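Sharing a chain and its predicted structure for anyone who wants a worked example. Both blocks are below, sequence first, tokens second.
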Amino acid sequence: MRVVRSLGLVAALAVCGAALQASDVPSHHPVMDSETTQQLTVAASSLVQQRSAALVQKERHDRSSPREVLGVRFSPKLVQAQDRAVHELENRNRAPVEGGPALLGAHTRLESGRAVRKGDRITLEAIERTEVEYENGRLSQSVRRRFEFTTRDEQITLVGERVVDPSAHPLNDADPGSDVPSH
């Protein structure tokens, strides 16, 4: 009887151990932890914030796009598209309405969203909130964006972004409706 109980206990422990190991295996589309999600959000924020700053006609200084933020690299194609967008926005005095007053200030923040991993790809969806100030008032805009990342070993690389709602026209997009191509 004692042997049967011992075997039962061993079998139960083996089942529990297998269940614990299975819980360590990522699910089909695991949500990233809050620390990694925040890291990805800060990296993605640097792009939209840089474009918003380019809307405001101030003294020009080196606004070359970062190549890496908080350990997240930016793909060369993404950097090239970002530099092109910043240049276009700097050379166009954007106004909230066509022919309206020039923008005096612009501030954008990306609210942490949800980051999901599928294999070597991570998708971050977040809400971008932009507020612009012009001579006679302010204008606020909220847009949902999706940022695409790839992973290789421990390195995360931002490779693309797009606006989720096709009818949205973000103030800080050089060419509304166009996506930044993925690698």
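Comments welcome. The CA atoms of residues 121 and 150 lie 5 Å apart.
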